[in-house]
């Protein structure tokens, strides 16, 4: 179980923290010494155990430090950048930064990153990376541009994975986020597009990451107060291709979505994260520790004086600005277990005993321990565990996944599915995906409470499934009335039977607007109908637009009289969308689906008449929108076509005309549809009249071959 101990102020010196707080806190070459860089001109070296500063260095008046100072662990020196391009290097004996080593670079620096066991890296604002030694050999070397225009780096992290250096940095452009992963052993730079899912309007407030043998677990705290996770493969399948990654919900509503001073997120280990922010809208800021494995709140501490929305973690200490002073909160954590996560772990230690996290780090060359001393007995235990692990046969990821889905929790299955999909596709990939969906659906039938919708959606988006491979999928989704999953199936499956398409249509038309507001659906086929610039013009229109043709005589006088008597509220009926936008997106998925008229018509007769009328009103509205421009198309990414709209109008009328014609509320709609058909007939009639003239012109063109190079002709059309 995790615990936060009593906080203490690192120094009585009030730091120069600007509106955005400190620039950073970085580890020094000594375990309990840290470099603190304020937002002005000063770098201070603190010793935490003594709670006092060991040294302080400042740049000249008029200069400003632009990225946090770091320690070069290979030399014990300190490195900082001021005024974006001026790099300074010094040690503990130096007093004046103006007299230490100086190098002026050719491009602006975003951050210097340093970890033990390797030289520091310099990340430039344009996305290029250089080793410190190579940069000092030629400070004015040309720095290439890696990221695109208007793309801004938001966060970065430096890892050592199997003694190989891995750098990740996140950029943002117009609300879109991208991840760049640099592998220095192979010099491969891979770019990923981070998809925010359905909540595309949310803003990412903070990033953090942890790493294992295959993946970088990128966690983000968004403006909606939720923590999301994105798994980024360390070894990309196709480095040259810009790949997309979808994030998944990790923890919900950990902070309020209107926190005043910002929020922060940092990973403590693979199972715990620290969150800084207000848990409720009216509450004070708190530092909270969450167990992401069991999704439980472990502990929290109220910070009454407010913070800058920043937190740093090193070893067993959390650093933050509390009020205007830098505060340290010691942190301890035991082995992550369900009993510990629920606060039911029995402690045999004294209350004051400091518990060290019990984690084995197999990658550290020194073989750092399990939380106890490196005795001969402990070394024998480690060797024995390594031998046991090495003797166990390696189980293929596909079999591991199939075994997981039969017994584990939905959250764990979701993580394993994402890991499997992130791996390089194998020859049996299609088979494994099909078997996984089949296994999940069998468990859904056996356990009614089990419904891993996120896993199913991820598997559908692999584009290897079809209705015939997993017919139970849409059957279960129909029982659950999961319109988001049904919409995705309609978009992805090419072989959906007409009976299932009609079943989806029934649900899309019958589900309440309140239920739709709480549902995430894809809106790419829908544009903002409420902001149409043609609405006012359409309201004044008393007759159907006839593709540019308006006959002088109208033989349907009775219809005209009916239209002229319409009240004001009915005038707006045809010019405003009769359904909410989310329902429109679902109905558009129906319009895009493939069908056979012979097999579809019998099922359309089973839909209630009021729902048929609503669907016809929506189709008529789409037709009017198509008529607003010469191309007869709708705006949007993937809107319905005019042919699809007209086909479904005809199908609905053929199947239900005798029922709809008896409904008083459908009378005006049928009159409008009649005039729609009449206008089309009139247009085609006029086109047939001029077809003869075009044929004569074609004959004349064929006779031109017998004439000279130049001639003037006058053609009269009657």
From TrEMBL:
It comes from the Eukaryota. Residues 399-718 form the Nucleolar protein 11 C-terminal domain. SUPFAM superfamilies: WD40 repeat-like. This is NOL11 isoform 1. It is found in: Nucleus, Nucleolus. The lineage of its organism: Eukaryota, Metazoa, Chordata, Craniata, Vertebrata. Pfam families: Nol11_C, NOL11_N. GO terms for cellular component: t-UTP complex. Keywords: Activator, Nucleus, rRNA processing, Transcription, Transcription regulation. One of its GO terms (molecular function) is RNA binding. Residues 1-332 form the Nucleolar protein 11 N-terminal domain. One of its GO terms (biological process) is maturation of SSU-rRNA. Coiled coil: none annotated. InterPro entries: NOL11, Nol11_C, NOL11_N, WD40_repeat_dom_sf. It comes from Pongo abelii.
């Amino acid at each position: 179980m995790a615990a936060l101990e009593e906080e203490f102020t690192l120094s009585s010196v009030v730091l120069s923290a600007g509106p955005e707080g400190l620039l950073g806190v970085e580890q020094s070459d000594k375990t309990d010494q840290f470099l603190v860089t304020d937002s002005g001109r000063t770098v201070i070296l603190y010793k935490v155990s003594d709670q006092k500063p060991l040294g302080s260095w400042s740049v000249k008046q008029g200069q400003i430090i632009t990225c946090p100072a770091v320690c070069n662990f290979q030399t014990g020196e300190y490195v900082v950048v001021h005024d974006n391009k001026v790099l300074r290097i010094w040690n503990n004996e130096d007093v004046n930064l103006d007299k230490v080593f100086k190098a002026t670079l050719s491009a602006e620096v975003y951050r210097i990153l340093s970890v033990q066991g390797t030289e520091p890296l310099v990340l430039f604002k344009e996305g290029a990376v250089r080793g410190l030694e190579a940069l000092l050999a030629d400070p004015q070397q040309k720095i290439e541009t890696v990221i695109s225009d208007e793309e801004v780096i938001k966060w970065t992290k430096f890892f050592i994975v199997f003694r190989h250096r891995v750098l990740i940095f996140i950029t943002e452009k117009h609300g879109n986020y991208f991840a760049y992963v640099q592998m220095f052993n192979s010099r491969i730079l891979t770019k990923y597009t981070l998809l925010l899912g359905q909540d595309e309007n949310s803003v990412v407030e903070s990033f953090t990451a942890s790493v294992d043998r295959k993946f970088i677990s990128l966690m983000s705290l968004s403006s909606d107060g939720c923590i999301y996770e994105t798994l980024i493969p360390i070894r990309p399948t196709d480095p040259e291709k810009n790949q997309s990654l979808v994030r998944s919900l990790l923890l919900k509503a950990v902070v309020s979505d209107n926190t005043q001073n910002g929020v922060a997120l940092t990973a403590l280990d693979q199972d715990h994260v620290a969150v800084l922010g207000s848990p409720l809208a009216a509450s004070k800021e708190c530092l909270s520790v969450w167990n992401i494995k069991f999704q439980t709140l472990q502990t929290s501490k109220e910070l009454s004086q407010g913070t800058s929305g920043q937190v740093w973690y090193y070893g067993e200490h959390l650093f933050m600005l509390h009020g205007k002073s830098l505060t340290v909160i010691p942190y301890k954590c035991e082995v992550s277990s369900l009993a510990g996560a629920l606060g039911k772990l029995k402690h045999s230690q004294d209350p004051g005993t400091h518990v060290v996290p019990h984690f084995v780090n197999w990658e550290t060359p020194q073989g750092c321990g399990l939380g106890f001393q490196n005795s001969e007995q402990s070394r024998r235990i480690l060797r024995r565990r390594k031998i046991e692990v090495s003797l166990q046969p390696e189980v293929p990821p596909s079999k591991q996944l199939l075994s997981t889905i039969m017994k584990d929790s939905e959250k764990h299955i979701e993580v394993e599915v994402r890991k499997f999909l992130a791996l390089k596709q194998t020859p049996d990939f299609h088979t494994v995906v099909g078997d996984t969906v089949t296994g999940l659906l069998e468990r859904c039938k056996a356990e009614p409470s089990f419904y891993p919708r996120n896993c199913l959606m991820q598997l559908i988006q692999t584009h290897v499934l079809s209705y015939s491979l997993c017919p139970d999928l849409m059957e279960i989704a129909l029982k659950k009335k999961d319109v988001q999953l049904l919409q995705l199936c309609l978009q992805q499956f090419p072989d959906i039977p007409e009976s299932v398409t009609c079943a989806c249509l029934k649900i899309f038309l019958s589900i309440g607007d309140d239920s739709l507001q709480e549902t995430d659906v894809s809106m790419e086929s829908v544009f903002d109908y409420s902001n149409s610039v043609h609405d006012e013009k359409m309201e004044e229109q008393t007759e159907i637009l006839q593709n540019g043709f308006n006959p002088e005589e109208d033989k349907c006088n009775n219809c005209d009289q009916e239209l002229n008597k319409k009240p004001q509220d009915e005038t707006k009926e045809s010019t405003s969308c009769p359904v909410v936008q989310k329902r429109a997106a679902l109905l558009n998925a129906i319009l895009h689906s493939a069908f056979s008229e012979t097999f579809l018509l019998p099922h359309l007769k089973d839909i209630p008449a009021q729902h048929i009328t609503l669907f016809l009103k929506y189709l008529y509205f789409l037709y009017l929108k198509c008529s607003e421009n010469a191309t007869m198309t709708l705006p949007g990414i993937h809107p319905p076509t005019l042919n699809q709209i007209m086909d479904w109008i005809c199908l609905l009328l053929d199947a239900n005309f005798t029922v709809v014609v008896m409904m008083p509320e459908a009378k005006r709609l049928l009159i409008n549809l009649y005039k729609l058909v009449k206008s089309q007939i009139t247009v085609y009639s006029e086109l047939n009249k001029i077809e003869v003239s075009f044929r004569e012109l074609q004959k004349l063109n064929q006779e031109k071959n017998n004439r000279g190079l130049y001639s003037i002709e006058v053609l009269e059309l009657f």
